[in-house]
Every structure is written in structure tokens, then in C-alpha cells.
Amino acid sequence: MIALAPIKHSSIVSQANRIARCFIRSRRTHVSLSPKRLAKDIAVSDDGATLVEMAVTLTVLFALVFCFMEICLIIYSHNLISELAREGTRYAMVRGATCPTSSNPTCEVTASQVNSYVSSIALPNLAGGTITVATTYPNGNESPGSTVQVKVTYIFAITMHYVPTPSFTMTSTSVMTILQ
Questions:
Q1: Mean pLDDT of 90-118
Q2: What is the arithmetic mean of pLDDT over 2-8?
């Protein structure tokens, strides 16, 4: 048989007493207080202050985080339309009136072809706005030495609540000289 050591009853009781005293100290009971004293203690109590402070703080914090995200989308969208305008003028400047190649003797590009090329560039439109492209030749022709202008217009839809305008328009224009 296995002999078990006797359990010291006094150590278990003393540990239970310590736990009970800690529990009683942590719980505030107002049973023995007079109604006047109880009302004063409740009015002075700060039991819910942390919850209210956290609610106000988190509201302001979330508003700032979402504003920051919206501003980042605006900056990204501006860089997107600037890149699209530059790519359009690069595409048009090397495809002027005198750009023969061995496979295609006339590789001249029209304004509508430049517009469709810029619209087909697969850069991610994270903000989901509307992109409009307009290509013009300010000098009236596509000969070398003339200029090509690509203007990209972007309607940025604001997704935040309580903003007075639901969208605003950004434009980017790129002008380059036709090389060939």
C-alpha cells in the first residue's frame, strides 16, 4: 500500500482565508452605508470613467486613421494620373509622322490611339475613381519638333462621412516634343 502524507488542514484554510479577504477587499459593498453616504460615494466614484475615456479616444483615433488612409489614396491617385499622362506622351512622341519601321512603314499614332493606350495601362486604381484621357497636338500636326499634350482627368470619390463634397477632380498634363 501507498502511504499518503497527511494534509495540513491549517495551510489550506489559511490560503482560502487570504483569497476570501482579497475578494472582499476588491468588492465594494455599500450595504452598511446610509443612503446619503451611498449617493455621495456613487457621485464621486470613477468606475465608468475609463470606459467613457476609451470610447472618446477610440473615436478620435479611428477618425484620424481613416483620414490618413484617405489622404494616402489621394496622393496615390495623383501619382497614378501623373504617370498615365507621362506614359501617354512618351507613347506619342516616338510615334510621330516620320516613324517608319521595317514591319510598319507608317507607325503614326492618332489622338484616339494614344487615349486608348493610356486607358489600357493596367495600373491599379485603388480609389476607384473615373479616369478620362484627352490627347491634343498643340501645333496641329504630328511631325518631329511639334508637341503632344496628354491631359488625364481623375474624379476622386471621397468615401468618408460628414465631408461636404462627395468628390473632387484632379488633373495632370504632360507635354513633350515629338522625336520622330
A1: 81
A2: 56
DSSP-derived letter for residue 168 is: E
133, β-bridge pairs: 152
Q: Give the whole-angstrom CA distance, residue 97 versus residue 94.
A: 9
Residue pair 63/142 in contact by the 8 Å Cβ criterion: no
Look at residue 23 in the predicted model and tell me its pLDDT. 54
Residue 165 has pLDDT above 90, yes or no: no
Average pLDDT of the chain? 81
pLDDT digits (tens, 9 = 90+) for 77-97: 999 999 999 999 999 998 877
Contact 133, 111 (CB under 8 A): no
Closest to 96 measured CA to CA, from 145, 147, 143:
143
* Beta carbons within 8 Å of 147's beta carbon, 6+ residues apart: 137, 138, 139, 175, 176, 177, 178
Alpha helices in 28-156 (DSSP H): 35-44, 49-93, 111-120
CA atoms within 13 A on the CB side of 161: 2
Of 152, 156, 157, nearest in space to 172 by CA: 152
- SS3 of the chain: helix, strand, coil, percent, to 5: 45, 15, 40
